Amino acid sequence: MKISFRRIFHYLWPEMCRHSLSFSLIFAGYGLGVIFDDIVKPLIYKELINLFSSSAGKDLILEQAMYMVVFLSLIVVIYNLGFRIGDFANSYFQSKVMKSLYDFTFNRLLEHSYHFFSSNFSGSIITKSRRFVRSYETLMDIVSFPIYFSLIVFLGIISILFFQAPLLASIFLFWSLLYLGITFLFIRKKVNYDAIEAGADSMVSARLADSISNILNIKIFSSDQREKAGFQAITSDEEIKRRRAWNFGNLQNLAQAAMMGALQVFVVYLSIYLWYRGDLSLGMFAMLQAYMINLFGFLWNLGHSLTRAAKSLTEMQEVIDIFDTPIDILDSKNPEKLRIKEGRIIFKNISFAYKNNNPVLDDFNLEIFPGERVGLVGHSGAGKSTITKLLLRFADTSSGSIVIDGQNIKNIAQNDLRSVVSYVPQDSILFHRTIRENIAYGKSDATAEEIEMVAKKAFAHEFIVKLRRGYNTMVGERGVKLSGGERQRIAIARAMLKNAPIIVLDEATSSLDSVSEAHIQEAFVELMKGKTTIVVAHRLSTIQKMDRIIVLENGRIIEMGTHRELVSRNGIYADLWNHQSGGFLSD
Ligand SMILES: Nc1ncnc2c1ncn2[C@@H]1O[C@H](COP(=O)(O)OP(=O)(O)OP(=O)(O)O)[C@@H](O)[C@H]1O
Ligand SMILES: [Mg+2]
After folding, report:
1. Which of 264, 366, 429, 464 falls 20 to 30 Å from 494 in CA-CA distance?
2. Measured from the CB, is residue 307 less than 6 Å from ligand 1?
3. Which CATH number fits domain 5-324: 1.20.900.10, 3.60.20.20, 3.90.370.10, 1.20.1560.10?
4. How far is the CA of 388 from the centre of ligand 2 (A)?
5. What pTM does this model have?
């Protein structure tokens, strides 16, 4: 994976700039703190020690030392103030930016098409998104503490030493540059190890999510042993990759520790030598030791922090790649105003294939008249759901056009298009919210009466009121606490509430018993009045009364007509009908 700082900061910077005051305060506060704590304070100690070792009279020393104490207490107050200002600014800034980044990520994800989500693991998208914000937090902490602190301490110490002990300053400078150079070499290699580790980690999350969402299958096929083995294979792979990354980090520690040890011994040796020559005071000796301890503290962390920063950048890159994935379904730059009222739908020379797959539709043509009720039948995989998805622009056609009331659907905003279609998909999924909220999803300002009315029409009211918490019952993740038929009835109710001029029902009643379905059909008759309707169903009794029935085979229309016409034609439809005889399977 290639990390691009420019692309990462392209997304971070605008969010960070929105809070520029607290952003500046972090650096001003911490800068003040670290200068007074780590650079100025040792200077006072140096003066104190020199004072004590001077040959002046005791009283004079005491008097001057008292001044130093006052001075020291001032410094203590200043650096504490600086650090605390930095802390508060940091808490404010970080919490604000992290919130914005979460919101930004969510908004950006929602811009992607439905198709994007069906071809990406949702588990891994969730992990990556969460890691993105966490990694930003780590990165920012590293920039504002170790990197910034080290830089200030380093510059401060070097400049003071240049005035007081130029030889030592040159040695410090040379050593620090060498240290940084070696650290960078390590980091460049470690980034690759970390990227491999992050990839393995995403695989673990994706597998976990996939297995958990398939828990029913695992139980049905008693495949827990198989699943456990599969999961263990993935975690073993992660274990190896993780250990490789960590061990490389340990190697880096070894190199850093060796360099620090060498400098430490060398500086002590040199100090003794300089002292012997009379070029170094006792105070200076103590100050040097204090500076070295401070510098080592920061530099030791710096090496690790830079490695962690690189790791965070790698993790952020994963999400940036998603951000940068071109959005496959875009609104046109100047969308036309919505003029759809009647619902005359024309599919013109449509060809379509899912990514890297064989064509599903090939030169498909169909005109549906305003207010017409059309039934779509055909063998499983014939392309019925695909047609409904193209109509809602969940994917774009490879060639041809879909025109509604004279408007090409590509020229209107997707939200506008979907606002004129009530759609019940083949597998209705509900939000883990209350039944009331799920129904009201069709119309955000729906009143309690409206919700109850559509629930009655969709034959859902009866079962809802029997639930202990009625309309306030939470339905479980994806609606698992309801039966398939109950879930469908909620989905129908919320589509009814939307009351759009075009209705698309994809197997909307497939999970209902025949009696409930017959009742809902009556409600649909009312709902469909004056509206263009497309009904996809395997159960032919569902579409028997449609104005026109279209039989699809391999993405092409092979028969078309009313139920009566098709039955008398003795073609595929008649064959299907004979097998179902009036909607019920016969032998
Ligand atoms: N997201 C997808 N990616 C790739 N191929 C897909 C995708 N969705 C559907 N297909 C393929 O497109 C073809 C048509 O699928 P579609 O869902 O339109 O069939 P259908 O007629 O609705 O079938 P069913 O009656 O089983 O619902 C099938 O061969 C299917 O495998
Ligand atoms: Mg289908």
Report:
1. 366
2. no
3. 1.20.1560.10
4. 9
5. 0.76
